[in-house]
Write a structure and sequence with these properties.
heterodimer, A: 113 residues, mainly beta, four-stranded antiparallel beta sheet, 12 strands, B: 116 residues, seven-stranded mixed beta sheet, 11 strands
């Protein structure tokens, strides 16, 4: 069965620190990969996505993610976080064979000035 | 386009009552997803439709939950009878199908359901 694991449930950083959030999925076939962000009290918005091609994907607000097929991973990174990045981050996987869009449990990021 | 529209934004109901949540997807999108978000379980996929047809409802927790999509522009998620443990934020999302799965999903603002 298709599943997504996010290892960090709660991350606390100071402004300007670097960020890396882990995401692993379990599915042997071809997948599309996504990172979504949910700011407090708001709905989910797309940060970035990977469908094919260059495994290093750049998204909005300085975020990037790298797809490592051999590790079934799609980790999210940002070199220098800002207070405004405080939010919950969700990794999601869409398996080509099923069209299901499955989300991880989310990582809550708190950035302090 | 106004995006995915959900109603109501907030719903408070008494245990045992029927609750109906509504969703209008983005015009032209052929996938529609219903998710439930709780602190304990995160974002769970309940059911999804492709071209108005339910494809996978394995995430629907119990027979008390049902979902319909009578046409391309409207879907409902019904809970009857409702229970306090159904309290959560329910999100609807839609996406445009493409070769190899769906493209990015666009989410509505969610319905915060409280069952007392």
């Amino acid at each position: 069965a298709q599943s997504v694991s996010q290892h960090n449930h709660h991350v606390i950083l100071s402004e300007a620190a670097s960020l890396e959030l882990g995401c692993n999925y379990s599915y042997g076939g071809t997948v599309n990969l996504f990172w979504y962000v949910q700011y407090p009290g708001q709905h989910l918005q797309l940060l970035l996505k990977y469908f094919s091609g260059d495994p290093l994907v750049k998204g909005i607000k300085g975020f990037e993610a790298e797809f490592i097929k051999s590790k079934f991973s799609f980790n999210l990174r940002k070199p220098s976080v800002q207070w405004s990045d405080t939010a919950e981050y969700f990794c999601a996987v869409n398996a080509w064979s099923t069209d299901k869009l499955i989300f991880g449990t989310g990582t809550r990021l708190q950035v302090f000035p | 386009d106004a995006g995915v529209i959900q109603s109501p934004r907030h719903e408070v109901t008494e245990m045992g009552q029927e609750v109906t949540l509504r969703c209008k997807p983005i015009s032209g999108h052929d996938y529609l997803f219903w998710y439930r978000q709780t602190m304990m379980r995160g974002l769970e996929l309940l059911i999804y439709f492709n071209n108005n047809v339910p494809i996978d409802d394995s995430g629907m927790p119990e027979d008390r939950f049902s979902a319909k999509m009578p046409n391309a522009s409207f879907s409902t998620l019904k809970i009857q009878p409702s229970e306090p443990r159904d309290s959560a934020v329910y999100f609807c999302a839609s996406s445009l199908g493409q070769t190899g799965g769906s493209s990015e999903a666009f989410f509505g603002q969610g319905t915060r359901l409280t069952v007392v």
